[in-house]
UniProtKB/TrEMBL annotation, chains A, B:
SUPFAM superfamilies listed in its UniProt record: CBS-domain pair (SSF54631), MgtE membrane domain-like (SSF161093), MgtE N-terminal domain-like (SSF158791)
Record-annotated CBS domain positions: 149-212, 213-269
Protein name: Magnesium transporter MgtE
Lineage: Bacteria, Bacillati, Bacillota, Bacilli, Bacillales
Record's function text: Acts as a magnesium transporter.
Localization per record: Cell membrane; Membrane
Family: Belongs to the SLC41A transporter family.
Gene, per the UniProt record: mgtE
Keyword check for Cell membrane: yes
Cellular component, GO annotation: plasma membrane
Keyword annotations from UniProtKB, A to Z: CBS domain, Cell membrane, Magnesium, Membrane, Metal-binding, Transmembrane, Transmembrane helix, Transport
Subunit structure: Homodimer.
Coiled coil: none
């Protein structure tokens, strides 16, 4: 994130355009509005639509064509807006037309944001075949290939010539999401090859598709998790990837723009989970929304924190004798928490991006704990010097330094291993996040610190 | 991150393929190796190449063509490998040929990983024009549009017909990264329009480009930060975006596959920075590497932690009288740290993804602190009940509960505002991460807790 005047300028220019459009609506300059709006990029149409109020949107329903409304709704995914409100205000004919003109992955996305009554109203108004297609797509599990794929792709037969294929692509051009990748299927709709438009253009028009296609197709089954798809597409630099059922029948395709959204969303999720937040749209939540979503976690952590409190209270005698011990509680628990979180972050991202393999986990944990031991000894030594200088208490300094070293070594070990353990028992490791590690490390580090202190208490007092 | 048998199967199949290839090398089955290797996807060629040892790589330099070596090296970005070692073993003719056959953004990336001697050796062996092109690209600032763009794009003239344009695209097809987006420039090389191959295919071959092109081009200046480019490309669902200089001259293009790498990398950076780690490749670092990179941060945090320790030691009298107070230090500082980190995460990602505008910052902070007040009161009340039940000390419970509420309210406020402040003074807000917020919150919460405790000490003892 760096500030950038140029981008600000662009944004300002865009917002000036939006303001001009708003004025046209308010002053009823209909034809001028229709022209200016049509010149916007689909994303900008969407952004403008969701920025204005209901009154302006009502105006737009009268003056936009359903093609434009389809563009507006197709960007709902990046813009986040309460779709059920929009569909309540929108004339139902218009909603129907717009849904028909959207690509079916976008339509599925929007329909999933509506309430049940709205969904069935739209399904009733659509042609039966379209309804079945969309319902079928909506039946796939959330965040799997099936749920983000589109069924609007181009498939060709291996017996076609390259010239025929090009003609076919032209004729499909208006109905599909991308024409740049086409799939070759046999008579049973089994996926047997892939070709890019570039391959076809470069081929002799008389050549057979079966001779020029790539039959080593990398494909995805419908139940595969979207994060896995993102890995594959990122590795292979694909513009699209085909989706097949269990019998290798081609059932859909996923395009790169949808995968960019996935990568962004998954990274956001990992990031927010590390802070024990479980929702991406938190930045837009109301107060009650934010509070209720975080509360279960925080209450859980309160109870976990009571474990540390109970341990500490069992050392009340030690504390009563040397109350200065309490002054170093936050630093020891904090540092073991910090290093633990660092190790955790490296493991979680390593697993998420696929860089870290399970077989390396112990090697990785060993590296982390050694690094904890080294950094712990150095920070411990510094702390020892500071305590000797400020409080003139070398033994206290030694106890604090040794505790810090052990706490940081244990912290890094736990932090690096927990994510693998979580993956093993089937829990998303990003959830085993900062605060959890901190609690475990708190307990361990306080036990070490006060056991040491209690042992040497006679020399301390 | 979910486990997935299907993906594991695919990976196993791939690794079996790699093992078979390795065997072919070891048994000298040259022609079989050459054929099998050529059937791999470019990414797989790369993965195999970087998986094997020097001995096998030396074999490959003899049997692969430079086209294949270019594919291998082009994927260096996702695979991370010490390029200077590879270039040391590689015959210099072969290295030269491979660099010539790579797209220039990938070549720039690889050259930047070499040491200075290797760089100049390669530059000396390349044709002068190529050297100048690459040096020019390498002169752009790291992580800007200029540094990740390619200069191998297709530009056409507005006076061409669609049919001419299609012919021109076919003739360029072997030399450019993508043929799916072409840019229209005037005689001065100023960018005046954009067209997709789809537009061209759908146009009447006799139509003029100036009549069918989109003249509302969204473009990027060469100095724009890559994270900003990712925002724009994500919003608009582009396959490529043109790069211009200050005078609107077309100088390059950035393709979607490079942007996917950027999104992934930036998300990783944000994530690791939150844990006070500043490098993406930490997952591969040696022990010394990990320790030395983290040490400066940890030493800084040790000194920051001493501030809390000093504050606490100034309350030594209070602690000596009621040593049970110490038992609740970790829970109060921990909870204010946790909520602060949550608020921080929401703000940092909100700023990073562009969802959160500066003008909303106070509204956002108000929401966060109110949410902190609500969750703090509830957790505080629970803690109060637990302390009354376990320790039968209602006044202590009240002090802890009030301190927790204040600490969590302050924690959320600070956590939500700090990232905006950091952005304002030009520091990456992701760096103002967890541990920092935790230290500030520690100081505030301990001051509140012990001030309250000292005030009511007479009733407590």
């Amino acid at each position: 994130m760096k500030g950038n005047n140029n981008i600000l300028e662009r944004n300002n220019a865009l917002f000036n355009k939006y303001e001009a459009l708003l004025k046209m609506i308010q002053q009823g300059e209909n034809s001028q509005f229709i022209y200016s709006f049509s010149c916007l990029h689909p994303y900008e149409k969407s952004e403008f639509f969701f920025l204005v109020d209901e009154e302006e949107r009502l105006y737009m329903y009268r003056f936009l064509n359903s093609e434009e409304m389809a563009q507006v709704l197709s960007n709902a995914e990046s813009l986040k807006h309460d779709m059920s409100i929009v569909f309540k205000e929108m004339p139902s004919d218009f909603a129907r037309e717009a849904i028909l003109k959207m690509s079916d992955d976008d339509a599925t996305y929007v329909l999933n944001l509506l309430n049940n009554d709205q969904k069935s109203e739209i399904f009733n108004s659509l042609p039966e075949q379209k309804t079945n297609e969309l319902k079928n797509l909506m039946s796939y599990h959330h965040e799997t290939a099936g749920s983000i794929m589109t069924t609007e792709y181009i498939s060709i037969s291996p017996t076609m010539t390259a010239g025929d294929a090009l003609k076919h692509i032209k004729s499909c051009s208006g109905k599909v999401q991308t024409i740049y990748v086409v799939y070759v299927v046999n008579n049973d709709n089994e996926l047997i090859g892939v070709l890019s438009l570039r391959n076809i253009i470069n081929s002799d028009p008389a050549q057979r598709i079966s001779d020029v296609m790539n039959s080593n197709v990398i494909k995805i089954e419908s139940f595969i998790d979207q994060e896995e798809i993102a890995h594959v597409m990122r590795k292979y630099d694909f513009l699209a990837i085909p989706v097949v059922d269990n019998y290798n029948h081609l059932i859909g395709m996923i395009t790169v723009d949808d995968i960019i959204d996935v990568i962004d969303k998954e990274a956001n999720e990992d990031y927010l989970k590390m802070a024990a937040l479980d929702h991406v749209s938190d930045a837009e939540g109301t107060v009650i929304n934010r509070a209720t979503k975080r509360l279960p976690w925080l209450i859980l952590l309160t109870f976990l924190g009571m474990i540390t409190a109970t341990i500490l209270s069992s050392f009340e005698d030690t504390l009563a004798k040397v109350s200065l011990l309490a002054a170093f509680i936050p630093i020891i628990s904090g540092m073991s928490g910090n290093t633990g979180t660092q190790s955790l972050a490296v493991s979680v991202r390593g697993i998420s991006t696929g860089e870290m393999k399970k077989k390396n986990k112990f090697k990785h944990a060993l590296k982390e704990s050694t690094s904890g031991l080294i950094t712990g000894s150095i920070c411990g030594f510094i702390l020892f010097l500071v305590i000797v200088i400020i409080y003139n208490q070398p033994l206290l300094g030694l106890i604090v330094a040794i505790s810090l070293t052990i706490a940081m070594t244990v912290g890094t070990t736990i932090g690096s291993l927990i994510p693998f353990f979580m993956t093993k028992i089937g829990i998303d490791p990003a959830v085993a996040s900062g605060p959890f590690i901190t609690t475990i490390n708190d307990i361990v580090s306080m036990l070490v610190y006060f056991s040491l202190a209690t042992t040497f208490i006679s020399s301390l007092t």
